[in-house]
Amino acid sequence: MLYTTLKITHLTCVLLTYFLFLTRGVWLVRDPQALSKPWVRVVPHLVDTVLLGSAIGLVLITRQYPGEQVWLTVKIIALVLYIAFGLLAFRVCRKRATRLAAWITAQLIFVYIVLVALTRTPLLI
Predict the structure, then answer these.
(1) Could you read off the pLDDT of 19-46 as tens digits, one per residue?
(2) Domain residues of the chain, as ranges?
(3) Under a CB-based contact definition with an 8 Å cutoff, are residues 17 and 48 in contact?
(4) Full-model pTM
(5) In 88-119, which positions are buried (b, 16+ CB within 10 angstroms) versus exposed (e)?
(6) How far apart are CA 72 and CA 115, in angstroms?
């Protein structure tokens, strides 16, 4: 029961975090002022916190630990890259083209993370 609840929570947060990231990226290009709304600065962090918590819970329940499971280790490394490119897109880069490139790269990394989770192989073969 706990496993199912954590998995549903995790998958729901995956969808929410991507939808929020996609929406913020569109606003980055079309309506940068929308990014300054208070909820835009809070909700993604709340969703990501629940996502991380559910991931940790799943790791503990399934006993599939990073370092022991290559696919999980690669997924965590890709997550760090996703966060880095997200920071570049929304906070660090000033030029619109560079921000857009970082945002697109982060999305590609996100898709890679999902594919690794589904296939449980970093090579996607």
Answers:
(1) 999 999 999 889 989 999 999 989 999 9
(2) 1-63, 65-125
(3) yes
(4) 0.90
(5) bbbeebeeeeebeebbebbbebbebbeebbee
(6) 12
